Amino acid sequence: MATRVERITNVLKTELTPVHLDIINESHMHNVPKESETHLKVVVVSSKFDGVPLVRRHQKVQELLKPELDTGLHALSIVARTEPEWEKSKNVPASPNCQGGFGK
Amino acid sequence: MQVLHIYYFYILFYYHLILFYFYKINRQVKIMTLERLVSISKPDELEKLLNVNKEFVVVVTFVAPWSTTCKNMMDLTREFVSDPEFEHILFCEIAAEEFPAVAQKYDIKSVPSVLFFRGNQITERLIGADVQDLTNKVMEHANKGPSLIGKPTRSVISQAPAAAASPDESLPLNDRLKSLINQANIMIFMKGNPEQPRCGFSRQVIEIINATGLPYVTFDILENEEVRQGLKDYSQWQTYPQIYVRGELMGGLDIIKEMRDTGALNEALAGV
Q: Domains of chain B: which residue ranges?
């Protein structure tokens, strides 16, 4: 069975044909069992984002990952940039620790 | 000789018939006992169960089904439910990962965790897979329930929802959501409140918006499961926090942060 990260990689590669794709498992920053895939950060650079407002880009990524969000993906951080934006800044901001109850 | 043959036939026939019935009865009993264990399948199911079973002891095990330590506790719970001695106790099982809001509400930080409820109050909290500890506590509670007559209610899903109280509740969900996101020029749907954010993402959003010095209103989605689920679909945005400016979704933490860093945030909030 494919891991969550593998499944996400596949769906984003197919749907967004990204020039850069990085999926970072940040679950270890949280109080969840080892090998969890509950907290992920997705960095995706695609020409399909050209001229698309930030909020729509994120909505697109969330829509593609909805099956994962519905089955235990608890926190999803997204960096969605166009190629020129990515060339200008490859800085990926750090995610906060999710301090609430489950996953601390 | 012939006669003896026929007897053999009858004996064999009845022997198998009896075996078959034993098998059937056995299966029936198993199915009946398994029904006594409630697997939570809806976000608000546990709350409803606790409400209707106030006079019973309710034992709720928060688990991750894939975890082997949880498996021990789940097996143990199945033994409890098949024991008539504990028929006045309602046993529930809930996959903590599938219902993060419920886990959060009861402050579950790791699995397995077992909560004992009485009269809607937590009376006992066991953390970890200590089989002996759980057995002791269940035995202890088995003999001191306020209601040893009657049996707990196990199904609440099909029951009609509680009567709507405020006139707002009578509006269709989408209308209510629309008026909610328009309640203030800056509306933040978050986990917890500005004084006590229940999630690091929500906390950072509050910090960023606080820094603008602009007034805003927050809504704690952990307090309202209907809004929590409804707003996800309404805005096609699957996570919280969500920030709305003049009724329009601006995004979550990632976007607010990015906008702050590029200076676009001040621009977007100008005149709000």
A: 25-142, 171-269
CB interface of B with A, residues 104-123, below 8 Å: 104-111
Tell me how far apart the alpha carbons of residues A74 and A39 are, in angstroms, rounded to a whole number: 6
Are the beta carbons of A102 and B249 separated by less than 8 Å?
Answer: no
B67, A33: Cβ pair inside 8 Å? Answer: yes
Flag whether residue A77 sits within 8 Å of chain B, measured between CB atoms: yes
The answer for residues whose C-beta is within 8 angstroms of residue B213's C-beta and 6 or more apart is none
What number does CATH give the domain A4-88?
A: 3.30.300.90
C-alpha to C-alpha distance for A28 and A36, rounded to whole angstroms? 8
The pLDDT tens digits for B210-266 are 999 888 899 999 988 889 999 999 999 999 999 999 999 999 999 999 999 989 999
Which one of B198, B236, B261 has the shortest CB-CB distance to A63? B236
> How near does any CA of chain B get to the CA of A57, in Å?
10
Helix axes A54-64, A4-16, angle to 10 degrees: 130
Residues 6 or more apart in contact with residue B101 via CB below 8 angstroms: B43, B222, B225, B228
How do B217-220 and B186-190 pair as beta strands? parallel
Q: Is it true that B25-142 and B171-269 share their CATH fold? A: yes
- Write the residue in A69, A98, A102 that is nearest to B200 by C-beta: A98
Correct CATH for B171-269 of 3.40.50.720, 3.60.150.10, 3.40.50.2000, 3.40.30.10:
3.40.30.10
Q: Provide the 10 A C-beta neighbour count for residue B178.
A: 13
- Contact status of B73 with chain A (Cβ, < 8 Å): no
Check whether domain B25-142 has CATH 3.20.20.10, yes or no: no
ipTM: 0.86
